[in-house]
Amino acid sequence: MQTSGAPLLPEPARRFAAWCAVLLLAAGVAAVFIWLCVVFKTAVTPVLLAILGTALLGPLYRRLVRMKVRTSLAAALTVLAVLLVVGGATYIVVLALVETGDQIIASLRQVAVGIAEHLGAAGTSLDDLAENAKTLLERFGGTAASGVISGISVVGEMLAIGVLALLLIFFFLKDSDRAVDTLRSLAPRATGDLVEAMARRAFEAVEGFMRGTTFVALVDAFLIGTGLLVLQVPGAVGLAALVFVTAYIPYLGAFLSGAIAVLVALADRGFVIALWVFGIVLAVQAIEGNVLQPVVQSRTVQMHPAVVMLAITAGASVAGILGMLLAVPLTAAATGVLGELRTRYGARPEAAEEPP
User: Fold this and answer.
1) Are 276 and 266 in contact (CB under 8 A)?
2) Which of 63, 90, 221, 347 could form a disulfide with 244 if both were Cys (CB 3.0 to 4.6 A apart)?
3) Distance of CA 234 to the CA centre of its chain
4) b/e for 230-247, b at 16 or more Cβ within 10 A?
5) For 52-86, how does the pLDDT look when each residue is reduced to its tens digit (9 = 90+)?
């Protein structure tokens, strides 16, 4: 009895099934990896922050090494520079937000009151919301002490993460010359070159993103802050600091900080000044989108805005604000890895035709 050698499924169906199996396997591996990162977030978060800090401070460390400074001393000086610069910038930002925070909140509250007056007949007024909030506070006031304790624990955890990240930055910088050898020792022999190339592309992408985003954030904060000061908008310094901080969340951060600046101007300076502020924000965003971002991203991995927004949304759903901050650099690293794979395996040279 002879059996037929014909396959059970046609060739297109077999290819479709193979691609489905590959996609399911990749999705399963990614899901397990994300789950492990969430479970061990206390250890993973300092590592990711240290990688971002190392990418941002790598040029300073390399310059010190070229000046014949010992690697350990150069790494220590770089970390000290981080403490001075980041600590000073944080102090300035927090001081500006504290000094002008009351003005910003009062302006936003005034705008909310105006909106509530127009919508009071159709919806709930602010007085009703305040009364309901007061009732809820009285009902659940017993949990205030536990909330304070949890807040103190969160602050302590953040401080511990910050200290650990600084220590990791020191070791990452100091032992950066041995990172390639470590990767090669962990990877199989046949894939050593590929793993090294992918790691370099990923780190270059993160390094370019961090330096470019910091430069763009400084320019945005300076231009918008100068415009707010000229228009005499209250809380201009605090709003500029808010623009700088939110610039590390592409697109969404600029929208939020710009909207807050326009609302503050509308509440304190009137409709005309609010229009001027809106025009300044739009002009700065146009300069960023048409001049700064193309120049900055021309040396790094370019990502489509839709990919960036999806990455921010996914990061927020996984890890909140921290996920929003880390989503884009991680996506840039993944894009760099995919670019390296595409360069190696995507375009294959065609066989040369023999002359007749």
Assistant:
1) no
2) 221
3) 28
4) ebebbbbbbbbbbbbbbb
5) 888 888 888 888 888 888 888 888 888 888 787 77
Question: Could you tell me if 304 and 333 are in contact, meaning their C-beta atoms sit under 8 angstroms apart?
Answer: no
Provide the greatest CA pair distance for the chain. Answer: 94
Rg of the Cα atoms in the chain? 26
Confidence of residue 24 (pLDDT cuts 50, 70, 90): very high
pLDDT at 7 over 50: yes
Can you tell me the distance from the alpha carbon of 60 to that of 57, in angstroms, rounded to the nearest whole number?
A: 6
What gap in Å lies between CA 160 and CA 181, rounded to an integer?
Answer: 30
Work out the average pLDDT over 152-178: 78
Residue-wise pLDDT for 271-328, tens only, equals: 888 889 899 988 888 887 777 776 666 655 567 777 777 888 888 787 777 777 788 8
Tell me, yes or no, if the pTM score tops 0.85.
no
Is it the case that residue 242 has pLDDT exceeding 70?
Answer: yes
343 vs 310: CA distance, rounded Å: 25
Q: CB atoms < 10 A from the CB of 2, how many?
A: 4
Considering only CA atoms, which of 320, 331, 325 is closest in space to residue 38?
A: 320
Residue 250 per-residue DSSP state: T
Closest CA to 93 of 246, 230, 215: 246
Number of Cα atoms under 13 Å in the Cβ half of residue 333: 15
Two structure tokens written together for 219:
């320019």
d(CA 40, CA 164): 15
Do 238 and 107 contact (CB within 8 A), yes or no? no
**Residue 289 CB contacts under 8 Å (≥ 6 apart), including other chains:** none
252 CB neighbour count, 10 Å cutoff: 15
Is residue 220 within 8 A of residue 284, CB to CB? The reply is: yes
State how far the Cα of 324 lies from the Cα of 248, in Å rounded to an integer: 9
Alpha carbon 123 to chain centroid distance?
37
| Dist. CA 194–CA 330, nearest whole Å | 19
pLDDT of residue 346: 66
Q: 253 near 327, Cβ under 8 Å?
A: no
Phi, psi (rounded to 5 degrees) for 69:
-85, 140
